[in-house]
Write a structure and sequence with these properties.
419 residues; alpha+beta; Adenine-n6-DNA-methyltransferase TaqI, Chain A, domain 2; 4-stranded antiparallel β-sheet; 32% helix; elongated; Restrct_endonuc_typeI_TRD_sf
Length: 419
């Protein structure tokens, strides 16, 4: 809706054109330079925590991020932020191609690289402008001001005066406060959901460490467990070498490493290829319940999934392993744990594209009950926990999407608030 309104040749009744887009008549548009104060305070010889900005996260301790403390003349030039101040990181990323702006909320003070544009809001409600920056409102303007992409140091080629020339909407102060209040309430709901997810993940870790390993037994089971390997428990197969030049745009899906994510499969149009039905390679057709593991890539040892009914039919492609057994519900829990990831980390190649062998998978040592009912009980318990976490994460994503949609409407004045 916002894009449709902004694209109109004439402003709707009650709205007017500004350098920040179409806004309500009661709102104005002003350059950042007129509502913020640039921060010039430097660290000097004071001992202040040095932080950087990580896209999608915010401020992070620089020593933890880069593995070393900063000292000397470079540190002395760092800019000092106080709680409530803002900083713009001109480093581009997949998540924020135009860089990102964060507000220092979790520290009393911190020192940031002086290549960041650091400022504080001097005329207006800082909470409102924090929500505006989070929404990506400045992205289009920043994109038009960035010269020749990324510099040799990895930063966007954007001058400070060009950044501060970006225009922002300026509602009446009371409306700024009300908009910020609404969106901050959304943030609190999202934060509570995130905390619940973290609690359930901790519970899953406990279940993994105690129940899956047999250190804590479920009530009613006393039969012994056995030490074994994945290879002794499964039928395995590595995918077929389909010729990429013969890929089709329709037919039976080809399950490649790029389709295997962390615990799920992705069939996005940009990564999915197809093949015609061929009885000579029917052994490579996946079945519901199969475990598939990507054997190449940066996330090798962490990219796995079980095949669901919605994933079928699909052919297994080379460099993807398939495991099949009558206890796959238990096997997939072992593969999804951090212990399996460490096992692969110790064995994968250190080439530009890390890869593992089928032997690396099959040699992984596990413990399993001898009682089939106990296997089923443990599998169900852990699977239910996974499903519950997935449900919570979907709910959180929906909350984030709703908040983002609401922010677009409120921050541009398409929907007005009562004050």
């Amino acid at each position: 809706m916002t894009d449709i309104i902004q694209a109109k040749e004439t402003a709707p009744l009650g709205y007017h054109y500004t350098n920040a887009g179409i806004l309500p008549n009661e709102w104005t548009s002003r350059p950042l330079s007129s509502i913020v104060e640039e921060i010039a305070e430097t660290a000097g010889t004071r001992k202040i925590e040095t932080v950087s900005i990580s896209a999608g996260v915010g401020f992070v301790n620089q020593a933890e991020k880069f593995g070393k403390e900063l000292s000397g003349k470079q540190y002395e030039k760092y800019t000092v932020l106080h709680r409530g101040d803002f900083s713009y990181n001109k480093g581009n990323s997949n998540l924020y191609p135009q860089g990102c702006i964060y507000r220092l909320n979790d520290r009393t003070e911190a020192a940031v690289p002086n290549v960041f544009e650091s400022f504080r809001v001097s005329d207006g409600n800082p909470d409102f402008y924090e929500q505006l920056f989070i929404s990506g409102f400045l992205n289009r303007q920043l994109h038009s001001r960035i010269n020749r992409g990324v510099r040799d140091d990895g930063l966007l080629n954007l001058r400070g005066k060009d950044f501060y020339s970006c225009e922002v909407p300026c509602p009446p102060l009371a409306e700024q406060e009300r908009i910020a209040e609404i969106l901050m309430q959304c943030d609190k709901v999202i934060e509570l959901k995130q905390k619940r997810i973290e609690e359930e993940k901790k519970k899953k870790i406990w279940l993994y460490r105690r129940i899956l390993t047999g250190k804590t037994r479920l009530k009613g089971y006393e039969t012994p467990w056995v030490e074994t390997t994945i290879g002794e428990q499964v039928e395995y197969l590595v995918g077929y070498p389909f010729e990429s030049a013969s890929f089709l745009n329709d037919g039976i899906k080809l399950l490649r490493g790029s389709n295997v994510k962390r615990g799920n499969l992705s069939w996005g149009t940009d990564i999915t290829a197809y093949w015609s039905e061929d009885s000579s390679i029917s052994d490579y057709l996946c079945q519901e319940g199969d475990i598939v593991i990507a054997m190449d890539g940066a996330q090798v040892g962490r990219s796995f999934s079980r095949i669901g009914n919605n994933d079928l039919p699909c052919y297994l492609v080379q460099r993807v392993a398939r495991l099949r057994s009558n206890i796959n519900g238990l096997i997939v829990q072992w593969i999804g744990g951090s212990r399996f990831a460490r096992h692969i980390d110790q064995r994968k190649t250190s080439t530009a594209i890390p890869h593992m062998t089928i032997k690396d998978i099959l040699s992984y040592e596990i413990s399993i009950p001898t009682d089939e009912k106990e296997i089923e009980h443990i599998s169900q318990l852990l699977n239910q926990q996974d499903q519950f976490i997935d449900l919570l994460e979907k709910e959180m994503n929906e909350l984030c999407n709703r908040k983002a949609s609401l922010a677009k409407l409120l921050l541009t004045g398409i929907v007005r608030t009562k004050v």
